[in-house]
UniProtKB/TrEMBL annotation, chains A, B, C, D:
Name of this chain's protein: HTH tetR-type domain-containing protein
Cross-referenced Pfam families: TetR_N (PF00440)
Entry keyword Disulfide bond: no
SUPFAM superfamilies named among the record's database cross-references: Homeodomain-like, Tetracyclin repressor-like, C-terminal domain
Record keyword Nucleotide-binding present: no
Gene3D superfamilies: Homeodomain-like, Tetracycline Repressor, domain 2
Matches recorded under InterPro entries: DNA-bd_HTH_TetR-type_CS, Homeodomain-like_sf, HTH-type_TetR-like_transc_reg, HTH_TetR, Tet_transcr_reg_TetR-rel_C_sf
Domain HTH tetR-type residues, every copy: 15-75
Record's keyword terms, sorted: DNA-binding, Transcription, Transcription regulation
DNA-binding region: 38-57
Amino acid sequence: MKVPEHRSLKEKQRLEREELILQVAQDVVLEKGYRDTSMDEIAARVGIAKGTLYLHFAKKEDLMFAFFEREMQKILQAIEQQPVAAEMSAQAKLESIVSIMHKDPSGKRANLLFILFNSEDFKIALQQKSLDTLQRISDKVMAYLEEGKARGEFDPDIPTGILLNSFFSVLSPRSHRRLFQEEGYTREEVMFCVQKIFFRGIAKRSS
Amino acid sequence: MKVPEHRSLKEKQRLEREELILQVAQDVVLEKGYRDTSMDEIAARVGIAKGTLYLHFAKKEDLMFAFFEREMQKILQAIEQQPVAAEMSAQAKLESIVSIMHKDPSGKRANLLFILFNSEDFKIALQQKSLDTLQRISDKVMAYLEEGKARGEFDPDIPTGILLNSFFSVLSPRSHRRLFQEEGYTREEVMFCVQKIFFRGIAKRSS
Amino acid sequence: MKVPEHRSLKEKQRLEREELILQVAQDVVLEKGYRDTSMDEIAARVGIAKGTLYLHFAKKEDLMFAFFEREMQKILQAIEQQPVAAEMSAQAKLESIVSIMHKDPSGKRANLLFILFNSEDFKIALQQKSLDTLQRISDKVMAYLEEGKARGEFDPDIPTGILLNSFFSVLSPRSHRRLFQEEGYTREEVMFCVQKIFFRGIAKRSS
Amino acid sequence: MKVPEHRSLKEKQRLEREELILQVAQDVVLEKGYRDTSMDEIAARVGIAKGTLYLHFAKKEDLMFAFFEREMQKILQAIEQQPVAAEMSAQAKLESIVSIMHKDPSGKRANLLFILFNSEDFKIALQQKSLDTLQRISDKVMAYLEEGKARGEFDPDIPTGILLNSFFSVLSPRSHRRLFQEEGYTREEVMFCVQKIFFRGIAKRSS
DNA sequence: TATGAATGAGGTTTCATTCAT
DNA sequence: CATGAATGAAACCTCATTCAT
């Protein structure tokens, strides 16, 4: 109020630190899972006091939700910035979305989303927040699925809601993770096959 | 000691109680997840003292593992008792397995297995036990998948390991649960579509 | 009251079992210490139900106290049955008592008494019971100590109470146990030296 | 962080509290023994929450070990700071050690050490820690015992290991405690007599 | 009388959250 | 703002003791 520039500098620092916290939290969650990630450890790794953590995020849930939301935002932005040629097939568009979700710089995104999605604690928290960004991603995918049906690419007999769910099942590395972590398949190989199964599976029969 | 009937009566009561405990544990796990299921709460809901719980299951892990194993046994037995005509297609055989896994009286089985499978704590416990039953179910499915490939039903270009994983993905109600719990689809409809996607997706292309 | 013979038969069986329980309790206490000896384990080793244990001894403390008392009784009897020649020196008489306390058939007595004497729980229980037998043993030793003083064997300047305590210190295998369990001394060697120190230490100076 | 005085003030308070905890723990252990000393009770008596206790000592064992080690350190330092004239007899040196061990401000030290030494649980914990301080005290005593033998003060026929044990037996107030707590002897009187017995007992006979 | 299933108080330890400095 | 010590609820597990059969 007195010195706006100062205020915004502070604000910038604040955001930078928030970003750092989220990064660290992500790492820890990936290592230890949701429940075994303690606020103590996050604070320690960031190099701040536990109390400071609570200045940024009032609850553990809030922190967790924040980086979930951030990932979603990134995905949404990437999807929206993706150049989409009009004549591109619906399948190609959806494949590009899958590709976005699996190809983050750190390569951790999909695992992270999976962990959060399957953490009981987190689910409960999630239901109480608005899922706006998630909804928008979902809408985008749904739009492509319906476009594909309209174009005759996808089987119109399968309800779009079910298609949507199956799409996100394909995406989530679920047990796929095991395939390249323990059974020696490459990530690319697995994703290629899984997408193949999915898109063939939903294709309109050429009859 | 003297009277066999007496002994077996006690034993019967014991088994009944054990069954009750497992039922309750199942419910709580379904509601709250593995970690948030406390021995206290299970005992309270069963209506017994905490100590009594420990007479039946020496550790939380043991209790959890017990009903996991029990479900697996039921599934394995059902699979093995299923009459399998020699000329039945591999797909039909696999469909019957899916059907078994999804048709338990309570309708909770698949969710439960999914929760346990994705609980970090439980995984660790699981690795220290023999996974015999689980392995045998898995072997059965794998055998059918390879039979299907040999018969020209399934695409031989997709590694069987990946097929196997995808099969269990289809099975696990993961987000499917949402479809009939919140979005108004019937369980049958969802399973029908999901299986359709899967089997079309892995079918050998008619050249 | 109706059938005395029967009654006494029952009574005899009862005592036999009580003896067995005490034997087993002794073994377990020697193996695990006072606190880590559970009523469950005693019952299991005796081959009776836990409830039966409580028909004989209403509290854990009572059981423990019972075999403490029993050992004391044995010691007292052995002491009183010991033929004591009038002209025997006081030192010789005391040495024979030490010998009795250390030479029980099982060779466990001294350790056991030591464990009990140093168990906090037991001490408290002990204080609430009459220590009759213990007192009588103590009186016997005290009498010999005073006899020794009167005869000019022991130093009359050391109060008999202190001598008494030191005597029981010498007896108790305390850390002596370590000497032959971990350091390779023989039990006899240790006892010989320790008694030597004690009796020389309390001897009247020949000046 | 910025102000050293501030840091050291906090540190000082922390140490003071730690000291208080150790004091209280000592009292409780003296009253109830090792096993019956609960973290709850210690916290309650100190007037802090249970969790706070765990900020200072991560395990019950650690707390117990901490004050054991602290006492040992105090004793070792006192021994090493003791001015030792070269011509002093070995007996005089050992007497000064006994005196140190028995003359702590609270007068509880020896009892405490004895309780800990005879607690099964503590022994196990002790074996996993380095016994450095304990060993050094023990070495010092042993050196004096051997010096005494060499000088012709002590009986060379008694193995030094046995002498060492007997020395610590004399020190430990074992049942001595009873003498001045219940029987009206003074501490000094008891210690005087007990040392007299010990040193006479181990003296070389003037032949 | 004998049984052993049932009880529940009590013990240790963890960790999200608060708050005085 | 930042700190981190303090809190206390809650989790798992044990075991002496009771009591219906």
